[in-house]
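Can anyone check this?
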Amino acid sequence: MIVAREPGELEPTPRAVAIGTFDGVHRGHRRVLETARGEGRRATVVTFDPHPRAVLGRPVELLATLERRLELFEAAGVEDVLVLRVDEALLALAPEVFAETVLRRIGTEVVAAGDGFRFGRGRSGDLDLLERLGFEVRRVPLLENCSSSDVRSALHAGEVERAAAILGRPPEVDGTVVEGDRRGHTLGFPTANLALAPGLLVPALGIYAGSALGHRAAISIGTNPHYGGTERRVEAFLLDFDGDLYGQRLVVELWERLRDEAAFGSEAELVAAIENDVARTRLAARPA
């Protein structure tokens, strides 16, 4: 898959373009991608980074990093991606100018987007305008209760199964493994401590079953209240894994929320709770 940052980096060729931010690449987004793929032209995504709302001063908790979005695009069969840097200049473009300098320049013939897609200065452009400008438009109906906002709501409530149903795959936390306080090593459950990208949504605090690197994982999202912690951390204990992950990127799937985090009366009680978490993680089912 070719990833470009400027329209001029992509060869002008007949393209079917799926356009949108696609935060999380959920089931509704994938319908747009599939529509573009089915048009017999080069399947292309035009997407935006950072999120336009953030540039407009309305920060949004992201469901996926740009790197993860690109991986999901490729898995969906996309051939080319144009990542447009969102800044005040881009947001100020008249929709007609955007259509000509971006879409027409790369050879777009078909545009696939969700109903209600808006673009250009003041969100004044829509799919009707693209039709008037001569593009073939494929309007993809929105799925009920299937939006990035719905995923955020589910994850804030710790409802990972509901989030997975919207996404069409388990929700994830994505970060780089950094040095921790090594308490897990002392207790016999060494964890990978994740530093998440700024702006990425962190699900509700608690203990989760999931997976990483093909291994089941017991995951703690919280502050380590047993030790009086206050800093929110994401830590994953990979079952039956032996290796050094420091400095590596790790994508951790969340399958099931097992319990709230808690302080215990003794370290022995904490170890017993972790052992139970691990046992339940071995039995957990990956949500579809």
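Reply from J.R.: I decoded it. Residues 12 and 21 are 22 Å apart (CA to CA).
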